[in-house]
Amino acid sequence: MTQKAITTTVVYHSGYGHTQRVAEAVANGASGTLIAIDAEGNIPESAWQTLHAADAIVFGSPTYMGGPSWQFKKFADDSSKPWFGEQWKDKIFGGFTNSATLNGDKLNTLQYFVLLAGQHGGIWVSLAIKPSNVKASKRDDPNRIGSYIGAMAQSDADAAPEEMSLGDLETARRYGARIAEVAGRFAATRTV
């Protein structure tokens, strides 16, 4: 018996291009597809079908003023239609965020994503990468920020997206791979 290919969809908003780079890294690790939330908080109508068909959904947003961007929140509100029909129930979920400071209250954004996944009846995947927290740790080491529930990235406010920490991007890539792996294990246990 052959197992079907796992589909992972990364739905994200990026204000300045930094969060888009994190989204691309997650999608790369998961061999997933990207859905960008536009500046008005919308996604194409066809993207909803992509989300409904996905085995795993990964949420992404910059952290602005202690939470996700209003554009992401609009998408979350619009997801009440699939919520009502339980279309995302038992899907695998993950999430990531980026801000200009090391803390920047990014945890609040990830917790928002966990709650949104829970409202949809989803199953959350943790990061599972130990933090780089010793004196020898460098900026480009994986999980240098020390997150556990999802991927966090930090981009200096005056830095271009190309100047992002390679460690943050590697953390995101590994997280995407983990999400796809968990989705595959979960799919293998389902009965038709």
TrEMBL record:
Residues 8-180 form the Flavodoxin-like domain. Transmembrane segments: none annotated. PANTHER family: FLAVODOXIN-RELATED PROTEIN WRBA-RELATED, FLAVOPROTEIN-LIKE PROTEIN YCP4-RELATED. Its cofactor is FMN. InterPro entries: Flavodoxin/NO_synth, Flavodoxin_CS, Flavoprotein-like_sf, FMN_Rdtase-like_dom. Keywords: Flavoprotein, FMN. This is Flavodoxin family protein.
